[in-house]
Amino acid sequence: MKLQLSNTQASHVVAWFAFLLLVLAILKFLPLVYSLTNGWDLGHLPADDPLRLQRAWALDLISDTGYLLLVWFILGTINYRLVGRYRWLPWGK
Question: What is the C-alpha to C-alpha distance for residues 44 and 42, in angstroms, rounded to an integer?
């Protein structure tokens, strides 16, 4: 039994993956926002202080967000090739 998807169905699947990727890219900023509640400048703390380590981890977590957005754009381009629209929101027509 072969699974046959039309261009519209494939576009819908790709649109949901792109939307999920965008949501996850936004959620990656939550640890940094939480870390900023401890203050903007943590330079007065020792290098091995847990607050500084948490800030460094949060900054490292968001460092690859540009790559995620590049993949998100590529998925939109795939949708454009499939159905002639980028379909940034998967529930739209």
Answer: 6
